[in-house]
Hints:
Distance between the termini: 41 Å
Family: Belongs to the CFAP300 family.
Structural class: alpha+beta
InterPro entries: CFAP300
Helix content: 25-40%
Oligomer: single chain
Order of helices and strands: EEHHEHHEEEHEEHHHHEEEEEEHHE
Strand content: 15-25%
Function: Cilium- and flagellum-specific protein that plays a role in axonemal structure organization and motility. May play a role in outer and inner dynein arm assembly.
Number of domains: 1
Mean pLDDT: 86
Number of helices: 11
Low-confidence stretches: 260-274, 276-292
Protein name: Cilia- and flagella-associated protein 300
Keywords: Cell projection, Cytoplasm, Cytoskeleton
Amino acid sequence: MAAEKVSEQKxxxxxxxxxxxxxxxxxxxxxxxxxxxxxxxxxxxAFNFDQHFQxxxxxxxxxxxxxxxxxxxNLKVLGADGNWKMLDKEVTRVxxxxxxxxxxxxxxxxxxxxxxxxxxxxxxxxxxxxxxxDFDELRQMLLIEDSENYGVISREDRQEFLFRLFQHxxxxxxxxxxxxxxxxxxxxxxxxxxxxxxxxxDPETKQVMAVSTVLKVKAYDQAGLCYPSESEQEQSFxxxxxxxxxxxxxxxxxxxxxxxxTQASRMSPCRPGILQDLMTAPIACLDRRQEA
Length: 292
């Protein structure tokens, strides 16, 4: 991931306040996001810009984005108090990661069934965990690199925006109530993906392809990280999805902040840091077929 100090501005941006996103308005999706401790902690905004974008100038593009006063006064960021506010920070440095975005279907998750992580009924195989109750094979595959099923999804596919979005949804927020059946995770991932990613039919091959350029971004001010959160957490994320199709120069910003640990610790008996702990804690998984 590259980092760059903010330099002279080239691109300028404007908020497209009239654009709406289906996943933020869908009642069923809202209920799931609430269950997964993400409702009110994830949002999307649309912006346009005035210069032709090329992938090679992604650093300049993102630097200019965070430097633009119209962005600073309109870009939403979730504060530690749980309220959305405008960024309104003097950004001094940004990091930008180009995220592959080529998938057009959720077929990439089929190996979860063939390797027993998910049963044919859609039930997620449960695990016994030394420290955490109600653990399952899906979260083990997502989080623990030396687990038996980590390689079920290739490292190349794990870099894809579709997989990253799926992982964010599955792991949820601090007070997440996990699903027993995978369908809700996949359906919600599909809905957000369709909302955010643009597709186009190639005039020569007639094949439909994803045409969005996806950038994972972080911004820093003099005090340190300021966007998408003030602290590093994989479940705090921000992606810019740039759409150059149909002659439009615009993009969507998808941002989420993981639940504030101090606030959550007063609300939940679970101790903070569960996602980090799961990366190293010993695990023994048992196939409990009678539970499905």
